[in-house]
Amino acid sequence: MDTVELLLHPVRMRIVHAMHDGRTRTTTELCGLLPDVSKATVYRHVGLLAEGGLLAVEEERRVRGSVERCYRLHRDRAVIDAATAASLSPEDYRRAFAVAMATLTAEFNAYLDGDGADPVEDLVGFRQHAIWLSPDELGDMIGELRDVIAARMAFGPGPGRTRHLLSPVLFPAETRAEPVDD
Question: Mutual orientation of helices 90-113 and 10-19 as an angle, nearest 10°?
Answer without folding.
Answer: 60
